[in-house]
Amino acid sequence: MNKNEPTSASDYCQAGLGLTGLILIGLSPWQLGLFETGEGWYRGDLLVPFISLGIMVLASIPAWVRLWQKRGRKFEADKEGLMLSTLYIFIFMLIFIGGLIFVGVVPSILILMPVTLYLLGQRNWLIISISTAVITTLAWLFFIKILDLYFPDPLLFEILGWV
Q1: How far apart are CA 152 and CA 51, in angstroms?
Q2: How many CB atoms lie within 10 A of CB 146?
Q3: Residues near 119 by Cβ (< 8 Å), separated by ≥ 6?
Q4: C-alpha angle 105/109/110, rounded to 5°?
Q5: Smallest Cα–Cα separation from 69: which of 23, 9, 11?
Q6: pLDDT digits (tens, 9 = 90+) for 24-72
Q7: pTM for this structure?
Q8: Fewer beta carbons below 10 Å: N end or C end of the chain?
Q9: Minimal CA–CA distance to 104: which of 44, 162, 56, 55?
Q10: How many angstroms from the chain centroid is the CA of residue 41?
Q11: Closest listed residue to residue 154, CA positions, set 162, 143, 145
Q12: Quick check: 46 and 147 in contact, CB under 8 A?
């Protein structure tokens, strides 16, 4: 890394997302009433959001390190402009939450993962297909079979009368 290199928009964006995740984790006992109920943070319905927020915080650490190393330098947009990959991931995380409610866990992963990989630059459809199949299978095994987490019936199933 060049010590005279300016700070970048993507580092600020990534660090901001990580800080947001850290704040949400820190405020969660009050938001969820965990102090009043005496329940632990490890309740099944809280596990997935906490894991997601934790990954968000951990993924922001390299951006924080770069910002610390470049402190005091001027700010410039990235060479190619704002790094869209960070924005894509954030937007698809929000869409994924809606997908969980509307179509369920497995279909959400099956739909959003290939689209996200494609937008992030992966053009090999074999890699996209294998990655999607592996991640979908692992998510299904881990969250539904091993942890036995309850996911409500998707809204689409209720609309179609399948529930």
Answers
A1: 19
A2: 9
A3: 84, 85, 88
A4: 115
A5: 11
A6: 888 776 666 555 565 655 565 667 777 888 888 998 899 899 888 887 7
A7: 0.59
A8: N
A9: 162
A10: 19
A11: 162
A12: no
